[in-house]
Fold this sequence. Notes:
Blueprint: E1 2-6, H1 9-26, E2 31-34, H2 41-54, E3 62-65, E4 67-69, H3 80-87, E5 99-100, H4 109-122, E6 128-131, E7 153-156, H5 159-169, E8 178-181, H6 184-188, E9 192-197, H7 203-211, E10 229-234, H8 244-266
Parallel strand pairs: 1-10, 2-3, 2-6, 3-5, 6-9, 9-10
Antiparallel strand pairs: 4-8, 7-8
Helix pairs in contact: 1-2
The site of 2-amino-2-deoxy-6-O-phosphono-alpha-D-glucopyranose has 13 residues, from loops.
Amino acid sequence: MRVIVESTPNEVARHAARIVADLVRRKPKCVLGLATGSTPLGMYAELIRMHREEGLDFSKVVTFNLDEYVGLEPAHPQSYRYFMDEHFFRHINIDPRHTHVPDGRALDFDAHCQQYEKLIRDCGGIDLQVLGIGRDGHIAFNEPGSSLGSRTRLKTLTAETVRDNARFFGSEEAVPRLAITMGVGTILESRQCLLLACGSSKARAVRDTVEGPITAQVTASALQLHRDVICILDEQAAAMLARRDYYREVEALQSRLEAARRARAEG
Ligand code: GLP
């Protein structure tokens, strides 16, 4: 796992957006896996700015979102479809038909989940999967105890996740108890994963993910099995990492190597 520590959430957002934008420029027809939550909001804002000011072109990009609440209409202000339209899609030149979010109103959930997986495969698989992390170390809605081989399916939310997400719904009672979520196995098949975390409330989950044992109790820890994961953290989220200084050293050397490579290529 590559661990990058930035000084502020704003820097995290800018760095993450740079990685997404590089891929979109390099591979205009790329398949992006996208996440909701407050963490990636700054990254979406920066990508929108790049689209407006630098002409970053999303016209051929395909997206798949990680999850959706069961029972919410796409027009419901707390649905993840609404979130994505509001905070990202309607501000860029993406073809709405290229944007996929699981449908929380599906009648046959098993068929819908299988169809979602098939669609990802038919599009060639996910090139880059953006991930946030829950305070208990979950990715997407893969709550503690989820199989590390799991596929897209229905998942019951834990009381902690319901409490955490109640801030968006006004009350705990209004938060759906069920969600459709890509599985840990689905996520691990992405070619690259980009995990973002900010704030001290994520410090323990980040430590368990990066330096703890691989366990279904912290589903993000399964990312240790993936060969290409970049974690971008702010100082607060990185505060409990034992090897923080080492990660910094690696990044400093990495930047020098990249600068030398660029100089050679240019000259
Ligand atoms: C929810 C989402 C996750 C997200 C997490 C953290 O559980 N399903 O994808 O990572 O919330 O959200 P936030 O970024 O708001 O802390």
